Amino acid sequence: VQLLESGGGLVQAGGSVRLSCAVSGRHFGLSAMGWYRQAPGKERELVAALSGKGIAYYVDSVKGRFTISKEDAKNTVHLQMNNLNPEDTAVYYCAASQLMHPGRLQSNYDYWGQGAQVTVSS
């Protein structure tokens, strides 16, 4: 299974970015998908996740600004990020789990993308 992220870049505060994660390979056992981020000097945190039953989770700091969605026909998961601020600057990682509800534990995710840099300037 391979996860390939795209869509990162530099954006001004208040702007929007959409990240995409394309899943390829033998992915039929995958259930939940998540987006993590890691800012410089900080631990990696779960930003948004979509359970195997389609229930979305968001960390409080992004609620109302970020939206996670899935395109089954394209085996792709998106993270739409609106009203960005400099605190959102980080490397964003896509992750896939065989569990229906993996929660926030990184160890519950089986596959990871290589990361996409998102930089928000003030």
Keywords:
122 residues; mainly beta; seven-stranded mixed β-sheet; four-stranded antiparallel β-sheet; 11 strands
Describe the overall structure.
- By secondary structure, the chain is mostly beta strands.
- The chain is built from no helices and 11 strands.
- It has strands at residues 2-6, 9-12, 17-24, 32-38, 45-50, 56-58, 66-71, 76-81, 90-97, 111-112, 116-121.
- Strands 2, 4, 5, 6, 9, 10 and 11 form a 7-stranded mixed β-sheet that branches.
- Strand 7 (66-71) and strand 8 (76-81) form a beta hairpin.
- The radius of gyration is 13 Å and the shape is globular.
- The chain starts with a strand and ends with a strand.
Please outline what is shown here:
The chain is an all-beta fold and 122 residues long.
Number of strands: 11
| Gross geometry | globular
Spell out the helices and strands N to C: EEEEEEEEEEE
Give the uncertain stretches in residue-range form.
none
Strand content: over 45%
Helices and strands, with pairings:
Layout (H helix, E strand, L loop, with lengths): L1 E5 L2 E4 L4 E8 L7 E7 L6 E6 L5 E3 L7 E6 L4 E6 L8 E8 L13 E2 L3 E6 L1
Parallel strand pairs: 2-11
Antiparallel strand pairs: 1-3, 3-8, 4-5, 4-9, 5-6, 7-8, 9-10, 9-11
